[in-house]
Amino acid sequence: MRAATVSRFGGPEAVEITEHPVPEPGDGQVRIRVKAAALNPVDAATRAGVFGGRGRVGLGWDVAGTIDAVGPGVNWSTGERVIALATGHHKTLGTHADYVVLDADTLAPTPATLDDTQAATLPLNATTALQALRLLDLAPGQRLLVTGAGGGVGAHAVELAHQQGLQVTGTGSPASEEFVRARGADHFLARGETPEAGGFDGVLDAAGLGPSALAAVRDAGTYAGLWPGSEPASERGIRVEAISVQSDGAQLTELSRLADRGVLFPRVAHAYPLEAAGKAHARLADGGLSGRIVLIP
Predict the structure, then answer these.
(1) Of 253, 293, 269, nearest to 127 (Cα)?
(2) Strand 143-147 and strand 239-242: pairing?
């Protein structure tokens, strides 16, 4: 089978399409025939060597596809449509491949209202948003600031926070205001506008603003970032956290249901064939995307 991998770190030109044996599922595992797999910033960071590692590294965290084979002790059946999140910065093979083997408890049913290309954008971004909100642990009615609210994680955070009854303010480019408000933001701040100092019970810093986002948190409030190790130092009694996203089939099943209810809105910017993974990385590097790039084996 084919897979997108890197054996040396660098730019988009470092991405290779390599041949591998089709993997076999073990106890508690399933094999998925990949129908679509989103390309995320974490894949670009892996390719560039941000997380280090030696030898060949597989790319891809998101997957939507069909169960092709099951190992012992699995309740899933072949032919079922599923989505999943394959975490880890040093995988031998990722989801940017023809097949992927994953633990069965990381899977969720694909939203019935979405095709595979749309569904492939959900696992990493929506799971990250959900786990970050749970880390913040805010109560209905409290004030949340989401930076980068027009992005993949930020938009899903706005949707989920609105659904949970939080008062949501989103930040982003002026062009994203209509979209962010439509996803559930009560207020919007265009990039460059300064949030009220100490005006929020919690901040989900999807844009990675660090200290300037922390300044918006009230004393003894909570800050959550997306890149462990890059979060600002605590001050004024603020609890500072950074999410290290974990695969969780139960949570992903919950998110799949919310997608079917229209709470979560998938956005696909472009689709590329798997063999053009390098070109897809180059397009991601160009920026200016209003959704995720998806690879189609």
Answers:
(1) 253
(2) unpaired
Angle subtended at Cα 86 by Cα 252 and Cα 20, rounded to the nearest 5 degrees: 140
- What CA–CA distance (Å, rounded) separates 281 from 297? 15
Q: Tell me if residue 68 falls in helix, strand or coil.
A: strand
> 150 is in which domain, residue-wise?
125-242
Please tell me whether residues 32 and 80 are part of one structural domain. Answer: yes
CATH number for position 216: 3.40.50.720
Give tens-digit pLDDT for 190-236: 988 999 999 999 999 999 999 999 999 999 999 999 999 999 999 99
Residue 247 lies in a domain: no
139 CB contacts (<8 Å, ≥6 apart)? none
116 shares its domain with 37: yes
Residue 286 has pLDDT above 90, yes or no: yes
Tokens 């880390």 correspond to: 135
Nearest one of 7, 14, 11, 15 to 96, comparing CA atoms: 15
CATH number (domain holding residue 287): 3.90.180.10
Among 174, 236, 164, 169, which residue's Cα sits nearest to residue 206? 169
**Stated pTM of the model:** 0.96
Both tokens assigned to 227: 């890149």
CA–CA separation, 138 and 131 (whole Å): 12
Residue 95: which of 125, 69, 65, 61 has the closest Cα?
Answer: 61
